[in-house]
Amino acid sequence: MEPSVVIFLILVLCISCLFLISSRKKSHGKGQLPPGPFPLPIVGNLLQLDTKHIDKSLGSLTKVYGPVYTLHFGSERVVVLHGYEAVKEALIDHGEEFAARGSLPIIDAVSKGFGLVFSKGERWKELRRFSLMTLRNLGMGKRSIEERVQEEAKYLVEEFKKSNGQPCDPKFILECVPCNVICSVIFQKRFEYSDRKLQTLMELLDENIKILTSPWIQVYNFIPSLVHYLPGPHRTFLNNCKIMHNFIEEKVKEHQETLDSNNPQDFIDYFLIQMGQKKQNQQSEFTMENLILTVSDLFIAGSETTSTTLRYGLLLLLKYPEITDKIHEEIDRVIGRDRSPCMKDRNSMPYTDAVIHEIQRHLDLIPFNLPHAVKQDTRFREYVIPKDTTIFTSLSSVLYDEKEFPNADQFDPGHFLDESGNFKKSDYFMPFSIGKRACVGEGLARMELFLFFTNILQNFTLKPLIDPKDIDTTPISNGFGCVPPSYKLHFLPVVK
Questions:
Q1: Residue 351 Cα distances to 113, 421, 423, angstroms
Q2: What are the boundaries of each domain within the chain?
Q3: Where is heme bound in this sequence (predicted)?
Q4: Binding residues for heme
Q5: Per-residue pLDDT of the chain in tens (496 residues, 90 and over written 9)
Q6: 134-to-117, 146, 268, 273, 440 alpha-carbon distances in Å
Q7: Cα 252 to Cα 496: distance, rounded to the nearest angstrom
Q8: Whole-angstrom Cα distance, residue 400 to residue 62?
Q9: Is the Cβ–Cβ distance between 174 and 311 less than 8 Å?
Q10: How far apart are alpha carbons 383 and 378 in whole angstroms?
């Protein structure tokens, strides 16, 4: 390399470092950005974090910089909030200011700002308002949606009976069950578990979850402008998303051909009616892009999060048979063996309710929540967070708070029971997040978890393949989310 080129590169590096030091001095301190580790040019704080365990790396930084600190994901500035007080203060007390959606480059490459989950501003407000209203019209929180879940629970039980007590990996079936519930809401259709289209969708979704929680994607999210053009698993992720969107588009076309504006049957029908009513409005958010992305958001969120929680829950019940026995006793006492569980039973089953809450707390499905952002320059505590700054809210730090949940690392349903054995609510229980961006399907997910778990345990005794002491229940965590390890079990039918 020519000496002049070397000198030029050294000068550029020095200038970059001086600029960073200068901007650092200006942006931190009282009335400015929260403190944080010094970022390097281009990569920011990437080299200071463990990309295999981003959540743990971010958690450890709070010991140095406090509950509110600044990081740089490449050139992207991120403010991290750690602990119940900071998270609640932002998402509830300053809910409007923190209601924008932060950047997650791999998802931004797919959504391009459309849809329900990753849209912003008036688009997000209109789509969220419409989605909540439509889901209520379709029975969310009502008896009609409960009947759909109960029906799917019967299919679930029959499918596990087919294993005839032999070792069974429950993963695929537990993915299909909540998927069918949300499909009945979106498409007015459930699929047979042997349906090839359903199997393909589950395979694509499963592959994408693995890619999304891989270290490679963490690197992509740090420096997307560079990694996007390289070969790698992100290309598979983007292609899988395209296939799923094409499937949804096919369903939309089918709905357009059969649409009865006076008798909408599902979410797509309601959306198409709005598209027709507002087609003259060039500013309308009821477009084909928003329809496809919103349906995709509902499909993914309604399928994967619940199925992952179910899989992790069964693994924990295998690990702790004494807890499973107590649930069996409560089911026998409250429900019996001659009728199906219903949501009214939950109020009479505090132990089962506590176990399900503890499963969700212990799994800690999305440790740092989906990213938020501030809509304007926002004063938060003694700092000022500039408009559009991405915000990470640590749900892990809340769900594993030692003061609220003593021995938080242990799986203990007692975390949600009082001294009399009654169910005990906790403000620290926020696996669905809180505030204006809380999950729109929280009510459905809670219903599914209760009805699916109770149906399984009403009909089966769970038997592990190995000694319960040797079962590893440690979730596989790679930053974005946590998933249970693979396992098999015996579903032994209960003699009625």
A1: 42, 7, 7
A2: 31-493
A3: 439
A4: 439
A5: 444 433 434 444 444 444 444 444 444 444 589 999 999 988 888 888 876 777 778 888 999 999 999 999 888 899 999 999 999 999 999 999 999 999 889 999 999 999 999 999 999 999 999 999 999 888 876 668 999 999 999 999 999 999 999 999 999 999 999 999 999 999 988 999 999 989 999 999 989 988 887 888 888 988 888 889 999 999 999 999 999 999 999 999 999 999 999 999 999 999 999 999 988 888 899 999 999 999 999 999 888 899 999 999 999 999 999 999 999 999 999 999 889 999 999 999 999 999 999 999 999 999 989 999 999 999 999 999 999 999 999 999 999 999 999 999 999 999 999 999 999 999 999 999 999 999 998 999 999 999 999 999 999 999 999 999 999 998 876 556 788 889 999 999 987 6
A6: 16, 16, 10, 12, 11
A7: 45
A8: 14
A9: yes
A10: 8
At 2, list the tokens: 């020519």
Binding positions are 439
Q: How many residues does the chain have?
A: 496
Cβ 67 vs Cβ 82: under 8 Å: yes
Nearest to 391 by CA among 84, 80, 52: 80
**CA–CA distance, 295 with 186 (Å, rounded to integer):** 7
Of 442, 436, 447, nearest to 120 by C-alpha is 436
| Token pair for 381 | 């505590």
Question: Which candidate, 443, 440, 447, 259, places its Cα nearest to that of 345?
Answer: 447
Structure tokens at 344: 């009214």
* CATH class of domain segment(s) 31-493: mainly alpha
